[in-house]
Amino acid sequence: xxxxxxxxxxxxxxxxxxxxxxxxxxxxxxxxxxxxxxxxxxxxxxxxxxxxxxxxxxxxxxxxxxxxxxxxxxxxxxxxxxxxxxxxxxxxxxxxxxxxxxxxxxxxxxxxxxxxxxxxxxxxxxxxxxxxxxxxxxxxxxxxxxxxxxxxxxxxxxxxxxxxxxxxxxxxxxxxxxxxxxxxxxxxxxxxxxxxxxxxxxxxxxxxxxxxxxxxxxxxxxxxxxxxxxxxxxxxxxxxxxxxxxxxxxxxxxxxxxxxxxxxxxxxxxxxxxxxxxxxxxxxxxx
Length: 287
Prior knowledge:
The chain is mostly helical. The protein has two domains: 2-38, no CATH class; 54-286, no CATH class. The chain has 13 helices and no strands. The radius of gyration is 21 Å and the shape is globular. It starts with a helix and ends with a helix.
C-alpha cells in the first residue's frame, strides 16, 4: 500500500509540474506521515544522513572545475582542434561535434555543460556549412551524453555512492564505452553525410592541426591528471576533483587568461546553482 501511495503521489506531483526533487520529498513525506504514521522529523533526518558522504563532495568540485574551464574559452579551442583533426572527412563538422563532446566530457563531466559549450558553437557553424539544423541539433544532443560515460562523470560519482562501488574503478570502466559510443556516432554521421551530401569539404592542414593542438593541450591534460592520479592511487575521486579545480584555475587565469577576476563571482554562483540542484535531488531521494 505504501509503495502504491508513494509512486502515485510522485507522478501526480510531476504532472502538476512540481520539480523532481520536491516531488520526491513531498511524496516521501506524505507516505511516511499518513501511511506509516512516522513523524516528519524522520524525513529531515534521512535527508541529512543521506548526504554524509565524503565522495559526494566531488560533485560540486567537478561542476566548479567544468564551469571555470567553460568560461576560459577551452570549448572553442577544443572545437578548433577537433575540426582540424577530423574536419577533412565527409561529414567533418558532425565528426568535430562528436569528438569535441568527447574531449569536453573528459573535462567537465556534465552533459548539460557539454551541450551549452559545444552546441552554442557548432550548431550555428554546421547550419552555415550546409547541414540541416535538425541534423546539427541531433548530433549535439546525442553526443553530449558521452560526458556521462567518459570520466570525470558526475553521473558515475552518484552511481558509485549509491551502489557502494569504488568511483575510480567506475571512471576507468567508462573510458572504453564512451569512446566506442563516440566512434559509432561518427560512423552514423559519416553515412548520413555521404548519403545526403551534407556539409562542405575542407583540406587537411598539418600546420593548423599542430597549432590547434598546442592551444587545446592545457585543457586536454586535465583528464590525464585526474585519471593518472586516481589510477596510481595518488588521490581519491574527491581529491581528484579538488585538483581539477586548482588546475582549472591555473590554466584559465595564467594560460588562457579567461575569465577575468571580476567574472569569477558569476562562475561561483552558477556552480552553486548547478550543484544545489544535483545535491538537493540526492538529499530528497535519501529522504
